[in-house]
Write a structure and sequence with these properties.
By secondary structure, the chain is of the alpha+beta class. It is 47% helix and 18% strand. Helix 1 packs across helix 3, helix 3 crosses helix 5 and helix 8 crosses helix 9.
Length: 247
């Protein structure tokens, strides 16, 4: 097969090379926001969607893909396309819709023919999402009843919060993150002789940090400690934050 036939579009290379939606959501996050967590796995792709049960609308989407570049590009693009759609609208998407979205030129396929078979996984994933959503919605309703005092936010309210966060300057974002770190995180780190410094915030989502003291050499700095810091910031500041240590 020729090199030309194996060529991916630039959009595909960018989606696969710089994924913004890789990761997972957990039940605790969904419950905290009054959202339904819908999961779907087919072959080497797994989706995690947070859905507003009041509007049946996708609030956020993440994924894990284990099949290399092709699966990465497909899942990344799918997750970017479904945000803001209703479940019915999102589940109407097919593999060919993803492929068309990734084309650089309207008449040039984004994926080489030898790899195009992976697009069929999108159809299967959408069937699973549609099948799994009713039970996820019911679970969200039960959780909302238990947390009656903390009434769930609507899709619109959550998006207003997102716009407010992304509307802050980087300096203001760092200030808010530092406040939470000082109150919720640093006391724990300092008990073990460590600390943490925020270096920068990239695109309002990626928090670049520098471990200090004992944290820099601690084996859990990329495991339990990192998970604790990231989950705290997601809960207290902005749900899409990703903490990246400067090692």
């Amino acid at each position: 097969m020729s090199v030309t036939e194996e060529k991916f579009s630039q959009k595909f290379d960018q989606a696969a090379g710089q994924p913004k939606h890789r990761g997972a959501f957990y039940k605790e996050e969904a419950t905290e926001k009054g959202l339904a967590l819908v999961e779907a796995k087919f072959k080497d792709m797994k989706l995690y969607w947070l859905v507003d049960p009041g509007e049946d609308r996708v609030y956020a989407a993440k994924f894990f893909a284990y099949g290399g570049k092709v699966s990465l590009g497909i899942c990344e693009t799918l997750c970017s396309m479904v945000k803001g759609l209703t479940i019915d609208e999102a589940c109407s998407l097919a593999g060919e819709d993803i492929e068309r979205q990734l084309r650089d030129e309207a008449d040039v396929p984004a994926i080489p023919e030898s790899k195009a078979g992976a697009l069929a996984s999108v159809d299967e994933l959408m069937k699973l999402v549609k099948d799994n959503y009713p039970s996820a919605k019911a679970l969200a309703a039960v959780s909302a009843t238990v947390k009656e005092k903390g009434k769930p936010s609507t899709f619109k309210e959550l998006n207003l919060a997102e716009q407010a966060w992304l509307g802050l300057s980087e300096e203001e974002q760092i200030q808010q993150i530092d406040l939470v770190l000082t109150e919720k995180v640093r006391p724990t780190l300092m008990m073990d002789g460590g600390n943490i410094q925020v270096l920068e915030v990239v695109d309002g989502e990626k928090v670049m940090v520098q471990y200090q003291g004992a944290c820099g050499s601690c084996g859990s700095s990329l495991g339990a400690t990192l998970s604790f810091i990231e989950s705290t910031l997601r809960k207290e500041v902005f749900p899409e934050l990703q903490v990246v240590p400067n090692m």
